[in-house]
Amino acid sequence: MKLRNLLLAMAFSTGSAAMAQDYTVTVQANKPGAVVQPTMYGIFFEDINFAADGGLYGELLKNRSFEFTPDHLMGWQAFGKVEIKNDGPFDRNPHYARLTTMNHNDWWTGLQNEGYFGIGVERDHEYRFSLYARVPDGKTQMLRVQLVEPYTNREHQEFCQQDIKVTSTDWQKYTVILKPNHTADKAQLRLLMCEENGRSGRGTVDVEHISLFPVDTWKGHENGMRKDLAQALADMKPGVFRFPGGCIVEGVTLDNRYNWKNSVGPVENRPLNKNRWECTFTYRYYPDYFQSYGLGFYEFFLLSEEIGAEPLPVLNVGMACQFQNGEDAHAPATEEGLKEFIDDCLDLIEFANGTTDTKWGKLRAEMGHPAPFNMKLLAIGNEQWAEPYFKRVKIVADAVRKAHPEIKIIGTSGPDAEGHNFEIGWEAMKRQKADLVDEHFYRPISWFKNEWNRYDKYDRKGPKVFAGEYACHDRGKKYNHAGASIYEAAFITGIERNADIVHMATYAPLFSHVDGWQWRPDMIWYDNLRVAKSASYWVQALFAQNKGTNVLPIQQTNFPKKGEDGVLTSAVWDKDKGEVIVKVANTLEQAKTVKIQLAGLKSIASASAITLDLSNYDQENTVEQPNLIEPKESEVKTQGNTIETTIPAKTFVVFKAKK
Ligand code: AHR
User: Fold this and answer.
1) Domain span at residue 330?
2) Domain shared by 397 and 504, yes or no
3) Is the beta carbon of 397 within 6 A of some atom in ligand 1?
């Protein structure tokens, strides 16, 4: 047993009533207080860091519809005679490729797709390849579909192949299943015009919307999500699911904003959008970062339902990113000027909740979900501030309220977590009677240490708080440090103590591809085959999985002063499980003894602890070593209604006690 594990085991088993304790925590176990909202501890999804295409969205091919610009063949290598044409079968994605014979047995025509930083496929797993194709001259043409590793020392680059015969002069969908005989994380997809005798093809064939998905997606949906990543979300037991951002809601310009209406209906005809994160940080530039909208609002509502999280859409308020634009970039602050944005809100509510005889409710039903999604929340605007926002959000929110008083409206207090714009933002949201206010804090450790009591002083009569984007950053915005995550845990105890006012909290950003990030730290990292849940993931997950149903009042000795390290605690009652749950975060460099007394309880029947060791400052889980930091469960000895324990340095522990 390693020394630290030995100490941990001792910490939870050597209670002694006589020991002088560094901290005493008295929990009023028989006085359940404010309800912990079911929306607590959720997820914030934004297509940054290749989180959608190349991430959660199961599509493995890049630029499947030949709509990337300025080069419609971005992501593809074309060889032989390939022409891009623009009168295809999908009016909003009109481009396709025409492949024509080279008229020589040894010259080939075809296309090769590089995927997102390569294509990850696993041995003996099935992958569904599909495309739309036609033979304009009516002469049957065979297409050979291959998984290849172009950069290999093996005899054959190809390791899996299937043939498709294109027979019709009309566009038709063709599908084959590929089952590779080996695992590759950076494969490519090759499509060759080919004759039955194995020689290069003769003739002409048009190809469009060329797609490759794992068959085994999350819940088996054809236009589905990557299973391991969706599972990581479900495992957290998130209370709320915010989508689709983030700055992507705003766009670099208004026409580049996330337009939800383009993200629903048949995937083949969802028009492409340029991803605003392509160019936001020029030191991490991705000219091939686009949004296929394949993971759109239908998929978002469905995934929310499947993982048991309340859907929280965020829509544009008629403003492009304020950081990047002057005043002229916004829609006029009048009812007429904002009509499109008001309609976006009203139509989204109809899409989510409307009956199937309404325009948008009908589309939802056609997409496979006749029952309403029961959307209850709507955020209007992301990270906007001052008068330009206040004027517009009032107009849009008033229109939504008038038509849908049942929907809770979330406004924003802007990008700062304090200061002038933050304060006037809150004041405006109070005046406008927003139900919740979204506040963001990407801040260093010193900020978190100053904010242990942040929510104690919030006005209980105003809007509730949505801590909508936050992360503890240290040593610059660069890494996932275990050493920063302990401050997130300690801070969230303050959120939990104030569950009457803080109704939702979502760490950000959520996902990041190791080869394609723009922003760090992030909650979940992945490459094409592997996943790493960060220390921050585990902190969030431990709160979400153990959120309880009601806050329990606590008194604690030696509560740290502003700016100081210390031991921070919170407690909840879980009426469904009959458990008292006490969370303890020690941000100090030394282990501390803590006595937890469950006042009002005669004795504890049994108790356990889940421990997250965050003491190795620079440690992080990586796709190569994903389990360096993970929670460990142990039993806890109790005496009557008391747990006496030692919390190791920089460690977060969740105690669960059964009556
Ligand atoms: O989470 C990354 C970005 O941070 C979000 O898009 C934005 O809202 C915030 O500035």
Assistant:
1) 41-58+229-546
2) yes
3) no
pTM here is 0.96
Q: How many CA atoms lie within 13 A of 513 on its CB side?
A: 27
The CATH number covering residue 472 comes to 3.20.20.80
Q: How far is the centre of ligand 1, averaged over its atoms, from the C-alpha of 473 (Å)?
A: 14
Cβ count within 10 A of residue 595: 20
* 268 Cβ closer than 6 Å to some ligand 1 atom: no
User: Atom of ligand 1 at shortest distance to CA of 247?
Assistant: 6
User: In the listed set 485, 516, 546, which residue is the last one of a domain according to the structure?
Assistant: 546
Q: Could you tell me if 265 and 386 lie in one domain?
A: yes
Pocket lining: 382 vs ligand 1, CB cutoff 6 Å: yes
Residue 410: strand pairing partners: 379, 436
Quick one: 195 exposed, middle or buried, by C-beta within 10 A (0-12, 13-18, 19+)? middle
Contact 613, 627 (CB under 8 A): no
What whole-number distance in Å separates Cα of residue 641 and Cα of residue 105? 84
Q: Does residue 306 have an active-site annotation?
A: no
pLDDT in tens, 550-571: 999 999 999 999 999 999 999 9
- 415 Cα nearest atom in ligand 1: 10
Q: Specify whether 258 is located in the same domain as 333.
A: yes
| Ligand 1 contacts CB of residue 247 (under 6 A) | yes
State pLDDT tens for residues 412-470: 999 999 999 999 999 999 999 999 999 999 999 999 999 999 999 999 999 999 999 99
The DSSP H or E segment spanning 26 is strand 23-28
- Which whole-number Å values give the CA distances from 323 to 242, 320, 429, in the listed order? 22, 9, 21
Which of 162, 189, 214 is where one domain is finished? 214
Out of 48, 312, 512, mutate this one to test ligand 1's pocket (max ligand atoms within 8 Å of CB): namely 48
pLDDT in tens, 333-376: 999 999 999 999 999 999 999 999 999 999 999 999 999 999 99
Residues 534 and 563 in one domain: no
Question: What are 411's strand-pairing partners?
Answer: 437
User: Are residues 452 and 318 part of one domain?
Assistant: yes
Domains held by the chain: number: 3
**Plot region of 433 (φ>0 → left; ψ -120 to 50 → alpha; else → beta):** left
pLDDT in tens, 504-528: 999 999 999 999 999 999 999 999 9
